[in-house]
Amino acid sequence: MKNEKQIRQPVFLIIAFSALILCAVLFLFIAYTINSSLDPGDYGNADVSRKQKALEYVGLKTGIDVSEGDLYFGFDDHDGSHGDGKTYLEVRLPVSIDIVIWESGDWKRFPVPERIDSNVCKLCIDKHRRDHEELLPQINNGWYYFIDRTPEYAYDYKNFTIAAYNSDSKVFYFCQYDS
Hints:
There is one protein chain. The chain folds into 2 domains: 1-35; 39-178, no CATH class. It is 36% helix and 23% strand. It has 4 helices and 7 strands. It has a 7-stranded antiparallel β-sheet with strand order 1-2-3-7-6-5-4, sandwiched between helices. The chain is elongated and about 85 Å long. The N and C termini lie far apart (66 Å).
């Protein structure tokens, strides 16, 4: 007859192995959940739910609901390495949102101040476009929103969110840059 120690050893191994598998499954689930919130890649050919998530993300970051718009160009190249990368979206809106933007109180009328224009727009160059034009075009009639998320002590990187709305074309631009 087997002694009690010989019986406990296989039971312990089974419990330990089961706990290890459970931890691995939990880790994969959490990693998938985090990464699926705003997946990297090109939004031009994305499915409807992915585009909708991107539009909701813009609303969360800017305070302006653009969920009724058409996301016709965009990408997210955040690579997961310290969160570095750029999210850029262009949204065509069916109606003007000038009043909504004005009422928010967080947006300013164009032109963008020189210190923002010269520093930020240089960082918003799209490697996905062949001609490397600036992502944020020249806007004469519209609004902009800028949040510098770079800590005061940071000298070697920039983190910012800039959005712009062209009142003439009803196009909403969003760029989130993290270095």
